[in-house]
Write a structure and sequence with these properties.
By secondary structure, the chain is an alpha/beta fold. It contains 19 helices and 14 strands.
């Protein structure tokens, strides 16, 4: 086991001997530099695990030496030593990232404890750094799976907006991967090393929303025996993801509008505002424009959230992405469950291509997950849920229940959508030419495109 290197930067002749004597029975290798300049050179050549730095040094003092160290080694543990403690010097050292500030002489037993704690902190810091690197790798832009035109536009939007510190609104049906896109934006942004805090506005009980988002002071309500930070403060300097924002009550909408305008929150029971530096990414599966018309969502909040909008296409309109995603999930769960399922049968893949996937990518993921548990060699039809097996054909046929009028409407709608897509393709997606081709006015065509969810990926 290699020894932890400790560097002492101190001009006192006996300091190195004292440290060596105290630590001789421990797993440490002690070396001494007598000037700040010498210490900086040694650190750049061979960084130690820990540095003890005297404040009073000839020529370049300890504070300036710490500044020089920080230019190349921002995370190196440095403990300041001084014979005469002053508040001003201690504060300055802490601002520069000193781990601790000790007055000499330091008792031997205390010195050992301080070193052990410092090195434990270093070890934890390295682990956190590795975990953050793994998170960035797992959730960056490369984690977005899909080759369809619609998904390529989403990926391109993520690339463009990630570097700009603005609010983003992600729209799409449930299960399309809105949180995945939010994480990709965060972990590709300058805030990547700071917290990402996700809040599901649809599942938070109404009575708890305000305290969860903004925190509360001790005594704010019965049972508030201690103060609690809200999600906005937890996300400070990072990103907060407000999922299903359309479910937020009018009262909380007013509070959120203030946060976006003033960049400050108020604790429940608090008497003064608290500044927060947070990037907001919101998501919804609700038609917010329609909610505004019905008085369920504030128009001013909508415009604050909708600075940059990303629309996620449903899986049924992403073409062969279902094949790519199926293979991705197969590989993912083979690894997670330590299985070796060779592939997905041709019949299953054909069914996947025609099935409408009302639960989108989340439904496909759960389908593959359960099928892998059931399968021994290859995923077969028998491994799929009955809902998918039974609806493979009915998804493209009229519903077998309901009135004749409903069945006719279903078939007519499909034929109408197909006709519009065909005309759009023939007109190279020029809407005015398409309207003339179909002998309808532009507004009617525009409404039909929205009604049937005809998105850019239908260009394929």
């Amino acid at each position: 086991m290699s020894k932890h290197k400790i560097l002492i930067i101190d001009d006192e002749p006996d300091i190195g001997w004292i440290f060596s004597k105290v630590l001789e029975d421990s797993n440490y290798e002690v070396s001494v530099a007598k000037t700040g300049e010498e210490g900086v050179v040694r650190i750049r050549k061979d960084p130690p695990a820990l540095v003890f730095l005297d404040v009073k040094l000839p020529k370049m003092d300890g504070i300036e030496t710490l500044r020089q160290i920080r230019t190349t080694h921002k995370d190196l543990l440095v403990i300041m030593l001084t014979a005469y403690e002053t508040v001003k010097t201690a504060v300055e050292a802490m601002k520069l990232g000193a781990y601790d500030y000790l007055t000499k002489p330091v008792p031997n037993d205390r010195l050992k404890i301080i070193i052990e704690h410092a090195l434990q902190t270093r070890s934890l810091s390295l682990e956190v750094g590795l975990l953050k690197a793994e998170l960035q790798k797992e959730w960056n832009i490369d984690s977005i799976v899909g080759n369809s035109l619609g998904m390529q536009e989403v990926i391109n939007s993520v690339r463009k907006v990630a570097g700009y510190d603005i609010t983003v609104l992600i729209r799409g049906e449930s299960g399309t991967g809105k949180e995945l896109i939010a994480r990709a934006i965060h972990y590709t942004s300058p805030r990547a090393n700071k917290p990402f805090v996700a809040v599901d506005c649809a599942t938070l009980p109404e009575a708890l929303v305000e305290s969860e988002l903004f925190g509360y002071e001790k005594g704010a309500f019965t049972g508030a025996d201690y103060p609690k930070l809200g999600r906005f403060e937890m996300a400070n300097e990072g990103t907060i993801f407000l999922d299903e924002i359309g479910n937020m009550s009018p009262h909380i909408q007013v509070k959120l509008l203030r946060v976006l305008q003033e960049r400050e929150i108020e604790h429940l029971g608090g008497k003064k505002p608290v500044k927060v530096n947070v990037r907001v990414i919101a998501a919804t599966n609700v038609d917010l424009e329609n909610a505004i018309r019905h008085g369920k969502f504030r128009d001013d909040l909508y415009h604050r959230l909708n600075v940059f909008s990303i629309l996620l296409p449903p899986l049924r309109e992403r073409g062969d992405d279902v094949v790519i995603l199926s293979k991705y999930f197969l590989q993912k769960f083979n690894k997670e469950f330590d299985k070796d399922i060779k592939g997905i049968s041709k019949k299953v893949m054909e069914l996947f291509k025609t099935y409408q996937w009302p639960g989108n990518a989340r439904e496909l993921e759960n389908t593959i997950k359960s099928a892998i548990i059931m399968a021994d060699n290859e995923i077969e039809l028998s491994h799929l849920p009955n809902t998918i097996r039974n609806q493979g054909e009915t998804a493209v046929s009229p519903p077998l229940t309901g009135s004749l009028k409903e069945m006719v409407k279903h078939v007519t709608g499909k034929v109408e959508k197909d006709a519009i897509v065909k005309a759009l393709k023939e007109s190279h997606w020029n809407k005015r030419k398409t309207a003339r081709k179909l002998s309808i006015d532009y507004k009617t065509l525009y409404n039909k495109i929205n009604e049937y969810g005809i998105l850019m990926e239908d260009k394929v």
